[in-house]
Amino acid sequence: MTAPVAPSASAVSDPLRLATIGAGRIGSHHAEIIARHIPGAALSAVVDPIAGAAERLAAELGVPHATTDPDEVLGRADIDGVLITAPARCHTDLVVAAAAAGKHIFVEKPMAVTPADADRAIGAADEAGVVLQVGFNRRFAPGFAAARAAIVEGRAGTPHLLRSLTRDPGPFTADPARIPRWTIFLETLIHDFDTVCWLNPGATPVSVHATADALIRPDAKATGHLDTAVVTIRFDNGAIATTEASFSASYGYDVRAEVFGSAGMVTAGDARSTDMTFYGADGIHVDTARRDTELLRAAYTAELTAFTAAIRHRTPAPVTGHDARRALAVALAAIRSVETARPVDLAEVTT
Fold first, then answer.
1. Which of these, 278, 281, 295, 322, could form a disulfide with 285 (CB 3.0-4.6 Å)?
2. Span 225-235, mean pLDDT?
3. Strand, coil or helix: what is 51?
4. Which positions ≥6 away from 189 have C-beta within 8 Å?
């Protein structure tokens, strides 16, 4: 694939002027990072369809423009790129529209929820010659990046067993009726699917076996709610990966990975918010993170810094649309595996 580049050096302003589409929890967090913590970048506009949401975030961050209409921002010549943090089902259409407008794109996961939409997003960005980066933040967390480097250097040997997990902080208080079906695969475990692929360089996932249940809210199972899942993935190099997710970890937000290879093992991630341990009369205590934006703050900042660098230096995005399509394929195979209670070859969901 030809690396995406900016149409011309003159097409990029100094500082880079970015807009965020989506002013919810993660959109507000990303907006604050761009506005205050990325040298050479400025947040110039906020978009959100909910009346007043964009205005409130823009006022908080000192952003000059707020609107409910994405087209209004995409049509502006002084916007170099956009951050798409709207609901997942809107991502592909927004990517396509942004690419058609010549804007560089950072899109939160999942980039798409069908292979056809993934191809549509990738094709639009390639045709427009714009950067398309997907928000798989764990690649930018220092421990995960160090683990990947050790694997690439061969220090762990050939990967045999991989593990990645996501446990959201409890107690779980969300209304299951407001959570889209299959969220645990398409929006939670999608991170873990990308992680195990990334930590097994050069290998391709070939089959998936998933088990899922409503163990936290069993009363909601009849409506399709799933809050606990384990997915096993086989790769073409023989490696076996296990990924797991829960919507409620009583002790905090927990994200970890492990790769066991022929020459050693690497691990990454921790629920701790600092490396301080308190030893007292009541025992040993550590502080844990309660939000992803707390535990992975450095990773979020690093991925957005990488996005702006790709635009400015006309280099490929470090996380591509093809990476997102691969993780999506695993998620779709996991969904079919739950539906059919059997292992599923990825070819069943990608062709």
1. 278
2. 98
3. coil
4. 166, 229, 231, 243, 245, 331, 334
